[in-house]
């Protein structure tokens, strides 16, 4: 299955909590990566282990693109292609 990657900003604890609450609605796996580190986007602890002071990349299944547009677009970096 094809995956879509976009740059996002989740630089505060409230944003991280909301982001996780939104990603649990997705049907397929959602990953967040920073440098060489990749974590499950549905894990608060995993996300907090990343350097969230700068944009990170979120990757999700193409089949979940509609959900991403609804629930995650507020976190997308303008021109946020991976």
Secondary-structure map with pairings?
Blueprint: E1 3-8, H1 13-23, E2 30-34, E3 37-40, H2 44-48, E4 56-61, H3 65-71, E5 76-81
Antiparallel strand pairs: 1-4, 1-5, 2-3, 2-4
Features:
82 residues, alpha+beta, Histidine-containing Protein, Chain: A, five-stranded antiparallel β-sheet, 5 strands, globular
Polypeptide structure, described:
Helices cover 28% and strands 33% of the residues. With 82 residues, the chain is α+β, with helices and mostly antiparallel strands. It has one domain (3-81): Histidine-containing Protein, Chain: A (2-Layer Sandwich), CATH 3.30.1340. It has a 5-stranded antiparallel beta sheet with strand order 3-2-4-1-5, with no helix packed on it. It starts with a strand and ends with a strand. The model has no long low-confidence stretch (mean pLDDT 94).
Give the distance, in angstroms, between the N- and C-terminal Cα atoms. 17 Å
Gyration radius, to the nearest Å?
Answer: 11 Å
Structural class: alpha+beta
Order of adjacent strands in the largest pleated sheet: 3-2-4-1-5
Any idea what the CATH superfamily is called?
Answer: HPr-like
Strand content: 25-35%
Mean pLDDT: 94
CATH arch. level architecture: 2-Layer Sandwich
Instruction: Give unreliable regions as ranges.
Output: none
Structural shape: globular
What is the number of independent domains? 1
Element-by-element helix/strand order? EHEEHEHE
User: What name is given to the CATH topology?
Assistant: Histidine-containing Protein, Chain: A
Proportion of helical residues: 25-40%
């Amino acid at each position: 299955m094809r995956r879509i990657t976009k740059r996002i900003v989740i630089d505060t604890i409230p944003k991280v909590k909301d982001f996780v609450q939104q990603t649990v609605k997705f049907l397929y796996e959602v990953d967040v990566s920073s440098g060489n580190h990749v974590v499950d986007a549905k894990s608060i602890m995993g996300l907090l282990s990343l350097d969230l002071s700068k944009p990170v990349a979120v990757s999700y299944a193409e089949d979940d693109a509609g959900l991403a547009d609804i629930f995650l677009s507020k976190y997308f970096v303008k021109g946020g292609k991976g």
